[in-house]
Amino acid sequence: MTQFDIIPFDAGDALLDWIGLTDALAEGHNLPRAEIADTFLYRGKDTLLNRAAWIDGLGLAVKSATIFPDNPAKGAPMVNGGVSLYADDHGALEALVDFHLVTKWKTAGDSLLAARRLARPDSRKILIVGAGTQGRGLHAAYRAAFPDAEFTVWNRSAPNAQAMARDIEGLRIADDLETAVRDADIITSATMSTEPLIKGAWLQP
User: pTM for the whole thing?
Assistant: First the structure.
């Protein structure tokens, strides 16, 4: 039987750093374009999403996510899942990776890579829209690349923003999203909103 690694959240989290991750993502963009396919299955409000990707020369991955909107009321996470990694040359399973580990690092890492490539060098005011788990990951990521920046968070639910600010020293809370957007050099957003929150007219040049 082929052996494969199981990478849980804590073990993987301890080995990663944001600058190294974004450098690796940048290298991945130099490889052939990924072939990607998505499938969705539904049961009422519940969803199973599978995203499969194959980068020639790197490997194959299948990320499965379950989205159960009623879970928070039961004290369980709304989103769960796992990631399977397969070898590029022979297709054997190489690793099973904790879904939340990939979600934390890949989501924030993509955002940070964009900022490292596109943001003005003098950017000092960073706005995080959303005070959930991903918002906290975005703060950790951006702090690694912009250690002297001032961070502000806006969240539709004020108590969640207040809880995030209690956990992160120096984090400011924005009461008005438009004002915060107009004042920010960099804006990074991670919400479950299905409606646009940020208007282009609010952005600085």
Answer: 0.84
